[in-house]
Structures are given as structure tokens and as C-alpha cells.
Specification:
single chain, alpha+beta, three-stranded antiparallel beta sheet, four-stranded mixed beta sheet, about 130 residues
Length: about 130
């Protein structure tokens, strides 16, 4: 699936069709990938600040997560682990994060073709696209 193309169509399209296609594709993937923060058994998905709010960093495929891990290794000297969750489990994780109230949303991928949304909206869309 070409998420770069889907993001471009969602951002520059004249209707909501591109946005729906993007989120349907993201929510019907088998799994999402994350960068790991922490050590040994305490590794959890990494968060970052985006627009002044905390967001979970997620990736639509392992190659994108690996590329970001390499970028972080070049900056800091340490390489984060790559984690993955089946999307239904990831949605459950988003529900827990939403109850906690500390995380605003999910930021997918990186760079020019990044996309994101609030936890509440992703949880709601998952009901529509995953049943």
C-alpha cells in the first residue's frame, strides 16, 4: 500500500474521499510499528511532542520505523528497538491512553508524508473500518 500517495490524496484532494481511503488503509493494516523507549522488559512505544501536545509515534510499516530508528541513532548514538502491535491491540492501547488523558493523538510515519489524528477520532474510525 502506498501511504505516501494516500497522504498526498488526503491532503490535496478536493473531497473527503482521500482522507477516508487513508484512514481505512491505516486501520485495516495487520499491525502498526513503533519505536521502543526504555530498557529490557520496560520497553514501551515512544511518544513525541507535536504541535505542543503528546502523540504516540506509529508507523505503517517496519521499513519506515527502521528508517526513523536509524535517524535517531545518528543523532543520539543509541538505536531504539522496533515494536509492533496488531491493529486491534493497538486500538485497545489507544483506549487506555485516552482514559489516562496525557496523550492527544497518534502521529504516523515521518516527514512530508506524515499524518495523524486524535485518539478519539482514531478509535471512532476503527469502529467504522474494522467493524
Amino acid at each position: 500500500m502506498d501511504f505516501d500517495q494516500l497522504v498526498a490524496e488526503a491532503q490535496f484532494g478536493q473531497s473527503k474521499t482521500g482522507e477516508h481511503a487513508l484512514w481505512k488503509a491505516a486501520l485495516t493494516l495487520d499491525r502498526w510499528y513503533f519505536l521502543g523507549a526504555g530498557q529490557d522488559d520496560d520497553v514501551e512505544p515512544m511518544f513525541a511532542q507535536h504541535d505542543g501536545k503528546t502523540h504516540l509515534l506509529a508507523f505503517t510499516d517496519e521499513d519506515r520505523a527502521q528508517a526513523m530508528a536509524e535517524q535517531l541513532e545518528q543523532r543520539s548514538g543509541s538505536r531504539p528497538a522496533i515494536l509492533h502491535m496488531d491493529v486491534p491491540d493497538a486500538i485497545d492501547y489507544l483506549r487506555v491512553l485516552d482514559e489516562d488523558g496525557q496523550v492527544a493523538g497518534v502521529h504516523f510515519n515521518n516527514g512530508a508524508h506524515a499524518f495523524g489524528e486524535s485518539l478519539v477520532n482514531i478509535i471512532e474510525m476503527s469502529k467504522r473500518y474494522r467493524g
